Structures are given as structure tokens and as C-alpha cells.
Amino acid sequence: MLSHVDKENLPTMVDVSDKAVTKRTAVARATVVFPDEFSRDHLADYQETFHTKKGPVLDTAIIAGVQAAKQTHHLFPFCHPIPLEDCRVSFEWAEEDKLTIDCSVRATHKTGVEMEALTGATVAALTVYDMCKALSHRIRISDVRLISKTGGKRDFRE
User: Fold this and answer.
1) Which residues, 6+ apart, have CB-to-CB distance to 48 below 8 Å?
2) For position 103, which CATH number holds?
3) 47 falls in which pLDDT band (50, 70, 90)?
4) Region 60-67 average pLDDT
5) 14 in Cβ contact with 115 (< 8 Å)
6) 97, part of any domain
7) Burial class (CB in 10 A: 0-12, 13-18, 19+), 157
8) Residue 30 and residue 122: Cα distance in Å, rounded?
9) How far is the C-alpha of 52 from the C-alpha of 83, rounded, in Å?
10) Catalytic annotation present for 130
11) Half-sphere exposure (Cβ direction) of 140: Cα atoms closer than 13 Å
12) Which range of residues forms the domain containing residue 121?
């Protein structure tokens, strides 16, 4: 049964009033794939500092990802506002042309933080795209997914 549908099949926010407050964590990942011509011509020069004319790409993506995670309840109608205790955005060059972005989130609350982690990773990836699109519009964002979560009814690990 879907959790955001009531007995009359109408959309609803989940009532968390009877849930226990527990430590909740989540890690989400997004991948930014740069096109071949971008990686050959540009990426080697950018991997260390990764600045474009718009500024420091990764630094800006960190700020955007954290800001987005904190605002998740404004974007999704049935997400509860959650006071995040920690949010981190990190990057790793998975291959020459693939940037992996992880967003990890922690809160002590009655409901999970998966949506906050997914939102943070996705917005960080969109920020990388926005700051690099002048170099190529063939940049792809792919494979956005939940990597792990703890707390609540059950833990999850990919």
C-alpha cells in the first residue's frame, strides 16, 4: 500500500505523530557524465580546481546541494519539514568523464531523510550542469539513487 494515500485513495501527508524519534541517516548519489569532446578538451584542466567562467563549480554545487536538502519540504508536497543536523556533499571522479556526487544527511526525527539526500545530490548535479553547460549541452545527469538509509522501520543499503 502506498503511504501517501488515505483510505479513500486521496493524497495525504503521512501522520508521524506516533512514530519514535530516532537517528535517521541517508546517502544519495547522482552521476554527472561529461561528453567525450568535453573530457578530452577540457576535463583534464578542470579536475583539480574545476573553475569555469561562472566560478568554482564544486564549491558552488556543495552550497546548492546543502541548501536544496534543507528546503526539500518546500519542493515536495508531502515531505515533513525536518531540522537537519548534518548535510554533506562530496565528489569523486569515478572515471575520466564521470563525476559522482554523494549527499549524506543526518537528523534525529520521526521520519526519514531519504528525500533530503536525493534532493541534495540531484541539485548539486544540476548545479554542475548549469555551470558547465556553456562548454557543452551534452552533459548528462544519470543514475540518481538512494545508496543507504538508517533509522525508522528498516535500514537499507544498496
Assistant:
1) none
2) 3.30.70.640
3) low
4) 98
5) no
6) yes
7) exposed
8) 6
9) 33
10) yes
11) 8
12) 22-150
How far apart are the C-alpha atoms of 150 and 158, rounded to whole Å?
12
Cell matching residue 4: 501517501
Residue 70 lies in a domain: yes
Residue 93 clears pLDDT 90, i.e. is over it: no
Q: Which three cell numbers stand for residue 100?
A: 559522482
3-class secondary structure, 129: helix
Which amino acid would we find at residue 1? M
Which of 36, 130, 143, 155 is flagged as catalytic? 130
Q: In this structure, is residue 36 part of a structural domain?
A: yes
Number of structural domains (the chain) is 1
Rounded to 5°, angle at Cα 99 from 89 and 63: 30
pTM of the model: 0.89
| Residue owning grid cell 561529461 | 34
Farthest CA pair distance, the chain: 57
Q: Which helix (DSSP H) or strand (DSSP E) does residue 132 occupy?
A: helix 114-132
